[in-house]
Design a protein that fits this description.
alpha+beta
Length: 183
Amino acid sequence: MERVEYRDQPQTAEEAQAFEKYRDLSPLELMRRLRTAEWNLDVARQGHAQWKAIAQRTQDELAQAERKLAAITPPGWELPKTVRDLLAHAEDHGWRSAVAWTPHGTDEMRLSIVIGRDTTPSDEPARGTQWRYQLTWSCVPGSARRAGAGIARTPSRPSWHDAPSIRQIRELIQAHPFPGGSA
């Protein structure tokens, strides 16, 4: 059997003071304390992972509740006719949609909608995997106008780009219904 020698750096004054309380302990007691410290560390790591999972789950529930709350039309407001027609047209063709109202100033609301569906094997081959249109309206009591062009992602152009007109979106939805109903 070959002898192995370890050459540690000399102890500093702080290390000597820290190890002083262990000098009088037997090797068996040192091992017990080491096992206890390792067990405590494992328990602390597991607790951290559990709290992290709980925090993530709570964050997800909060985000879901915020989305549901944003989708409720505020009292005294209504969806503009253009938006109602577009959402109905999309849903009639099996596309998914989501609506969110956001206060903007004292007497204005922002209405954001998302319309889209995933591609299916029956769709023509393309680089992207979904159709998605995100549009925003600026609403004041009695009137609404589109705020910006909106953004789009299509199978032929999978990166975000300016959305087409409402008429073109309706034509695209008509040309690409989701087979079998709901996307």
